[in-house]
Amino acid sequence: AVLMALLFGIIVAGYLYATVNDSVQVRTIVISGAKKTKRTVVVRELTFREKDQLPVKSLSDILERNRQNVFNLGLFSAVEVEPFIVGLELHIVIHVKERWYIFPIPKVKAEERNSYDLIRSFSQGDFHRVSYGLDLQWYNVTGRNETLTFFGQLGFSKRLRFRYSHPGIFGMQYTDLAFGASFINKNEIITRTEGSQALWDRLESTPLETSQSVFLQVKHRFSIYKNLVVSLDHSWKNFEDSLNVFNQQYLPGDELRTSYPAIVLAYSHDTRDWHSFPLKGRRYRLLFRHAGIP
Prior knowledge:
Elements: H1 2-19, E1 23-32, H2 39-43, E2 53-55, H3 59-71, E3 76-86, E4 89-98, E5 102-110, H4 115-123, E6 130-139, E7 147-155, E8 157-166, E9 175-186, E10 188-194, E11 197-202, E12 209-221, E13 226-239, H5 243-246, E14 257-270, E15 283-291
């Protein structure tokens, strides 16, 4: 009890001593409760580092803003920041509570054009355009805030998609990498219309349309709130020559295969307090996309 009282007295005395000065120096930053998440992941979101000077008058606002930054990672269900001032030194303990990181989500989808077609098909007992699959989302794979997503689908159309992102590649703390690919097979597609009604055609054993795409994305953070994303992707589409039987004008130039690259540049400035339910701040985003060969 005497030791605890002495420690409390030292902390209170340090706080009173610091309030008569303009700033305190961050002596230590301790991450508590991160069983899987690496320390560097949390520290990356802070606007200060050890040995930095922080103004005393705005200290509470700074710590609250950094608590929001850590929470916006999406890796924790709770984040608390606890400061201890001893003399002119500031010791910060960040308490986090890790959430679940693996989410298998089953999905069922009716691939109709609109609600009217959906109601009409279901009312006639036609469910053959229903697709079903599994969306697997795995966050914080090795504790470095990586994300792996996988989606597989069967039924009306066959789809396969995966994406992997890794922050801080090749020792560059503020440069992130992401890549992925997708594959789609469609046995039945809309090839023509009669009046106002769309007509579907299909092949039983061979997809009428197949498509594949791959992408590579690099993201650089100029600061916690500013980043630039450069994304390169390439897409391929293949059509069966049977489409000319259904509609001779479906494929201009009778091109059964087509492919094209695309580039995306996106600049973002995001100062929102809570990304999932913002109360303050703004988000600006500039996007440029070009597809095809000039």
